[in-house]
């Protein structure tokens, strides 16, 4: 007998898993440090720590003050002082 447990997962983590699956698998690093946050990105995840935005925790995309950011297929969009900047990965 095989026990199958189905659980619905929603939110950013599910998007990360779907991205990894679509790209042929890979490693998803989850940070347990409460100072870290992560959001999905077409190439993996953007890891946020204070004023640094890192792609997959290794490639520094941006380091400075910002108001908000969003993932973009070419990198990330930075909102700073009511202006938008595209930072290419």
Describe the structure.
With about 90 residues, the protein is mainly beta. The chain has one domain. The protein has one helix at about 10-20, and strands spanning about 35-40, 45-50, 50-55, 60-65, 70, 75-80, 85-89. The strands form two sheets. Strands 1-2-3-4 form a four-stranded antiparallel β-sheet, covered by helices on one side. The longest helix is centred in the N-terminal third of the chain and has 11 residues, at about 10-20. The protein starts with 11 loop residues before the first helix and ends with a strand. Mean pLDDT is about 75; it is low at about 1-10.
Main features:
89 residues; mainly beta; four-stranded antiparallel beta sheet; three-stranded antiparallel beta sheet; disordered N terminus
Instruction: Provide mean pLDDT, rounded.
Output: 77
Category from helices, strands and their pairing: mainly beta
What series of H and E elements makes up the topology?
HEEEEEEE
Span of the ends, CA to CA: 48 Å
Write out the strand line-up for the largest beta sheet, numbering strands in chain order.
1-2-3-4
Helical residues, percent: 10-25%
Q: Work out the strand percent.
A: 35-45%
Instruction: Using the CA coordinates, give the radius of gyration.
Output: 15 Å
Q: What gross morphology would you assign?
A: globular
- The number of distinct β-strands equals 7
Q: Counting H and I runs of at least 4 residues, what is the number of helices?
A: 1
Main sheet specs: 4 strands, antiparallel
The number of distinct structural domains comes to: 1
